[in-house]
Amino acid sequence: MDYRGRVALVTGASSGIGHAAARAFAQRGAIVTAVARRADLLEQLIGECRAHQPACCYIAGDLGERSFAERVVHDTVARHGRLDVLINNAGISKHKQIYHTSAEEIERVMQVNFLSCVWTTLAAIPYMLREGGGTIVNVSSFAAKVSPPREAAYAASKAAMSSFTEGLWCDLAGSNIHVALIHPGPIDTEIWRKMDEPPAYQGRKHPPEVVVDAIFEAIERRAYEITIPKRSPMLAFARMLRLLFPGLLRAGLAWMDPVPPEIVERARAQAREGKRLGGFRED
Which residue of 41, 212, 272, 277 is surrounded by the most CB atoms within 10 Å? Predict the structure, then answer.
């Protein structure tokens, strides 16, 4: 596919998958609007992108705010006249015991990981309809299929994104707007260093570029759903257990990352004191 002159909006572009995707689009000649919170990292990224496509730009802000999420779409079209590709990749982690998690934390995860995708998508569809079509790629997670321990909030946000995307497959039929869903497994990004509690997973992490390859495959082959890495025995086995032997899967996850009894007892004691979840302390 010839990307020269096409306009691509990439969220979560300051690092990891979004950073690699923005560079890849620019290298193919696309005009990139990179979006994230960290302006310094975006400025550095766009400096690299402009070596390939001088019209690339960035917008820094919080995609967890509806007004900003919608504005990045409108501003991109106002600046470049069109929007051909929307990559919804922005996300934050939430890896901690449910006893330590507040409702406000879960609400924040849903705003950034799921609702930002809804807001940008609904803002983008009219522009794509006006131009005769476009592509939206939503980067979900394998956690949406198999929820790991201590990631109920994160998995729920990605499952919501996945279901929203699947609904669009039918709702946008005949519009020439293609919507694709990417399910990455463990990818080597800084999200692993931003977890509230140390992760139990110590296995292999794949480079962000494998997800970028899947994004371009989804666009060019008009694929609807891709799990990355492909042909991963670990992901295939986990998915099989979830579908056929869910009890065995729960037992395996509980063995891999058990809830320490002292955490349960401490939470029980604090509950008797009238504390709500998220107010529980580990000390």
Answer: 212
